[in-house]
Design goal:
With about 375 residues, the chain is mainly beta. It has one domain: Tachylectin-2, Chain A, CATH 2.115.10.20. Helix content is about 5%, strand content about 40%. It contains four helices and 22 strands. A four-stranded antiparallel sheet has the order 1-22-21-20. The protein has a four-stranded antiparallel sheet with strand order 2-3-4-5, with no helix packed on it. The protein has a four-stranded antiparallel sheet with strand order 6-7-8-9. A hairpin with a 5-residue loop joins strand 2 and strand 3. The radius of gyration is 19 Å and the shape is globular. The two termini are about 35 Å apart.
Length: about 375
């Protein structure tokens, strides 16, 4: 287990109904920060593989009573930046939400060089609805590449592939698959070349909201005459069905204080609390605009309509330093904690925060990466 401590293992979490609109006498985010709920992390609460970079992590309790985890992975030898060309979405199962998880198969992988999502699959986000499972993801177009092959990071072909990112959804009756992909993206870039999402769309987060409407938060990049594109922004779209069509609001959310800033947030997790009749989201606070410098870099946001968002009164989701059960620590402020996803128990209480942490080795940034599961506990403590 010390191996995990050496690599500085850490995790992110995801959940629904964090707030005590459920009859408690305190409200996380209102009365105190969610960061106060973070517990010591058991060193076994990880999805680790020495041969793979592991990113993302999306968890659902199945109709079968088991727990189903979907995560991105790509060969470690291809390096971190090869997510754009090599990523696939893998699937694992467990008897308990905290694990241990047994890898089962590849849910979504390479298909061909023709399909819009044929080259790779990334950023899984799982929901269950009306007896089926819906796996949202990001796909790109391009030829197959072996693990030993590697695009020049941020070179012409790297950016070209990155710019083909679109949002898809695959549907299955069984969490182990097979998965039926749609022939077209469920959300695509705008045809208006001046739009904020004219270059690409990615990073989907989906929930069933008020009146049964499906809500999708997504990341977008605009065109600016350069191959890499311009500003990174977020917006929201709505649908009547989990397979769309998703109708864009074209409303920018999670806006930076500086309108010229390149990027301020990413990696949303979203849910709707029926008892509060309110939407909540956790985002990566890239420049600490919402939570300040002394935080773990995740912010809690709230909204009445999923369109107009503001930071919660106590927006910190993570402390700057996370503690492992073997006594080691992970500096979330320095190394970052990404792709948050909260898992709730049957009573709607947040139980686990899933997420990705990075490992720097031999002078190489993000030489390796892992997913972990952070325990959460609600107490009557207030700030």
């Amino acid at each position: 287990m010390k191996r995990y401590a050496y690599y500085g293992l850490f995790a992110c979490f995801g959940a629904q109904m964090l707030f005590s609109c459920s009859g408690r006498n305190f409200v996380p985010g209102k009365d105190f920060a969610l960061a106060d709920m973070v517990q010591t992390i058991p060193v076994e609460n990880v999805m680790y593989d020495s041969a793979w970079n592991i990113w993302c992590g999306s968890l659902v309790e199945g109709y079968d009573g088991k727990y189903h985890l979907y995560y991105s992975r790509w060969p470690r030898e291809s390096r971190h930046e090869s997510w754009i060309s090599h990523s696939e979405i893998a699937y694992a199962v467990a008897d308990r939400p905290e694990g241990p998880y047994q890898p089962v198969n590849v849910a979504l992988g390479y298909v061909d060089s023709i399909r819009w999502d044929g080259a790779m699959a990334h950023n899984p986000y799982i929901i269950k609805y009306d007896g089926k499972y819906y796996l949202y993801y990001v796909g790109t177009k391009g030829t197959h590449m072996a693990a030993s092959e590697r695009l020049q990071p941020y070179g012409t072909e790297w950016w070209t592939r990155r710019n083909t990112q679109r949002v898809g959804v695959a549907v299955s009756d069984n969490p182990a698959g097979p998965w039926k992909r749609l022939d077209q993206p469920v959300l695509s870039n705008s045809a208006d070349t001046t739009a904020f999402d004219a270059m690409l769309v990615s990073n989907p987060a989906v929930c069933v909201g008020r009146d049964g409407k499906f809500v999708m938060l997504y990341k977008a990049v605009c065109k600016n005459g350069m191959l890499r594109g311009g500003k990174v922004r977020f917006s929201v779209a709505f649908a009547d069905s989990p397979t769309g069509p998703f109708v864009k609001t074209n409303k920018l959310i999670f806006q930076p204080e500086d309108p010229n800033a390149s990027m301020v947030a990413e990696d949303p997790f979203v849910w709707y609390d029926k008892k509060c009749d309110r939407y909540f989201a956790i985002v990566r606070d890239v420049v600490r605009q919402f939570t300040g410098k002394e935080s773990g870099g995740l912010a809690l946001m709230e909204s009445e309509d999923a369109v107009n968002w503001r930071p919660a009164p106590h927006p910190k989701v993570l402390p700057p330093v996370l503690h492992w059960s073997d006594g080691s620590t992970y500096d979330a402020n320095k190394l970052s904690f990404e792709r948050p996803f909260v898992f709730f128990d049957k009573d709607g209480i947040p139980q686990l925060l899933l997420g990705t942490f990075s490992v720097n080795n031999n002078g190489i940034r993000r030489e390796h990466s892992f997913n972990g599961r952070v325990p959460l506990k609600i107490t009557d403590k207030k700030d």
